[in-house]
């Protein structure tokens, strides 16, 4: 799938929302990409995850790691297409952790995947977790990089689509200044 096909999935499914949103990062935006509208549909999720797996096939990874919640679904399905295991990085007191007896071996080849990147916080938490096991990160992939390529990842980076979506700190948000009602989306509560 190319970038336009991914963005068309967001538009056609109603997953591209406009308004005044508080993002998972805490920033505000006038656009929200509701990945769960895509991920709740197995036929769409399958298309996305197969496209992502195709980008990683040549890397000979042993494991796909994704952060909860959306990254968990993507990690599972990408791993299924690659014929390897999927592990899930869950929130801990100081970043992401593995639970349920999950771990990585030293030098184990790992691909990290997630859904929508805005600030890179979730991905960087997973990177730190994987590095703590001295595993080898061979690539990072996301469904959508909404930073327009501004967030730099120190590993080969494979977004299925990239957009430059505006976002602002709450103190400088023009939507707040106009008094537009704020809708909170995402998984982290502030």
Task: Note down, in words, how this protein is organized.
The structure is a single chain. By secondary structure, the protein is of the alpha/beta class. The chain has a single domain (3-184), classed as Rossmann fold (3-Layer(aba) Sandwich), CATH 3.40.50. The protein contains six helices and nine strands; from the N terminus they run αββααβαβββαββαβ. It has helices spanning 3-13, 35-39, 42-56, 70-82, 121-132, 174-177, and strands spanning 16-22, 28-33, 63-67, 85-92, 95-98, 109-117, 136-145, 157-162, 183-184. A six-stranded mixed β-sheet has the order 5-4-3-6-7-8, sandwiched between helices. It has a three-stranded mixed β-sheet with strand order 2-1-9. Strand 1 (16-22) and strand 2 (28-33) form a beta hairpin. Helix 3 crosses helix 4. The radius of gyration is 16 Å and the shape is globular. The mean pLDDT is 94.
